[in-house]
Write a structure and sequence with these properties.
372 residues; mainly alpha; 81% helix; 0% strand
Length: 372
């Protein structure tokens, strides 16, 4: 999962700056190219999760990674932004996130599952931070096409890892019916699903405009060679900053309090991005605050879903969770690009602050349950 997500995340810090090299580029199409991946992911997570419960996790992982590889090659060979959009849509059609999380849960004892999911969240957060450092370096030297080819190579590495994994017999068979869907749509799971939707909507919106703000405020050069000076300290600060949050949530069972705290600092970062005059120090500080919250929430939410979901329908539950996540990516790309194009960069942060506020109210209104 970390290998695949590392490949995906690498376009975030560079695409909105370098997309002008493609024909027919507009801010809306930049947002669509970033977000379309989330739409195809959202449409296919539930089918992939369901069929992994029926025929096994491993076959679905192999199919998904092959489709992802094809999409990466299509994007790498495109000269028009429409071709990149098609390639990104194909990448998203390899919708295996839910299958991977269900696979993990199959192998981990229930009492250790929360720690295992939190560890996966940490790995994904680390992959994201490394992508912010390495993505610009690859793009400066090899262009966007070279970046997509590297992503294709990472998908082959992920495929080799999957082939080496043991096979798991499917759980008891069930039909994809309304009654079974209802079992994985109880209120606590719905709140977690909205949470991951909101988190990735905010992330996608932010990374439509943050790379441009870096250049416009002369924090880094146009070729983004100096990105590491911002992202490396942010990576280190946010990794250290998230650890106390995860510890309090998992060891002391303070999940709701830590969720509310993390959403609060996420909201604060978006408001401050809107109001603050940006220079190197202020940008680094606000980005660190943002990523402390993002990494903590990214680690906590799948852990809570795994603990809450019915074991025999875990693939389906994770499918709905991942659908929500990638639907957030798609909506964030569409709305972020449209708001940037229509109202300017700064207004994007008002939109993300609004979404974070709604999320905070939803979490605050829920009753505390055991293990939550």
């Amino acid at each position: 999962m970390a290998t695949r997500m590392f490949g995906l995340f690498m376009i975030f810090p560079v695409f909105s700056v370098y997309a002008s090299q493609y024909q027919s580029t507009t801010p809306f199409l930049i947002g669509l190219a970033i977000g379309i991946y989330g739409l195809t992911q959202a449409l296919l997570q539930i089918p992939f999760g369901y069929f992994s419960d029926q025929i096994g996790r491993k076959p679905m992982l192999i199919i998904g990674l092959i489709i992802f590889f094809i999409g990466s090659v299509v994007a790498a060979n495109s000269t028009d932004i429409i071709g990149v959009i098609i390639g990104r849509a194909l990448q998203g059609s390899g919708a295996i996130s839910a299958v991977l999380m269900a696979f993990l849960a199959d192998f981990v004892a229930p009492e250790r599952r929360a720690k295992a999911n939190a560890f996966v969240g940490l790995q994904i957060g680390l992959a994201f931070m490394l992508s912010l450092l390495i993505g610009p370096l690859i793009t400066v030297n090899f262009g966007i096409s070279g970046l997509f080819l590297l992503i294709a190579g990472l998908s082959i590495l992920a495929l080799i890892i999957v082939i080496s994994l043991p096979s798991v017999k499917p759980k008891s068979q069930y039909s994809l019916s309304f009654s079974n869907l209802k079992q994985v749509l109880e209120m606590r799971l719905v709140r977690f699903n909205f949470g991951i939707f909101a988190l990735h909507l905010i992330l996608t919106c932010a990374f439509i405009v943050l790379p441009i703000l870096l250049v416009q405020n002369h924090i880094v050069a146009l070729d983004l060679n100096d990105n590491w000076k911002v992202y490396l300290p942010v990576m280190l600060i946010s990794f250290v900053g998230m650890l106390p949050i995860i510890l309090l949530a998992e060891k002391y069972q303070k999940h709701k309090i830590m969720l509310l705290f993390s959403i609060t600092i996420l909201l604060l970062s978006q408001i401050l991005f809107y109001y603050t005059k940006l220079n190197f120090a202020s940008f680094l500080t606000l980005l660190a605050i943002f990523f402390i919250a993002f990494n903590a929430l990214e680690a906590m939410l799948p852990s809570l879903v795994a603990k809450t979901a019915n074991a025999s329908k875990r693939g389906l539950a994770m499918g709905i969770y991942s659908t929500s996540q990638f639907l957030g990516t798609f909506i964030g790309g569409i709305f972020g690009g449209w708001i940037y194009h229509t109202y300017g960069i700064n207004r994007v942060f008002l939109f993300t602050a609004f979404i974070a506020s709604i999320w905070w109210l939803i979490v605050a209104s829920g009753q505390q349950k055991t293990g939550e």
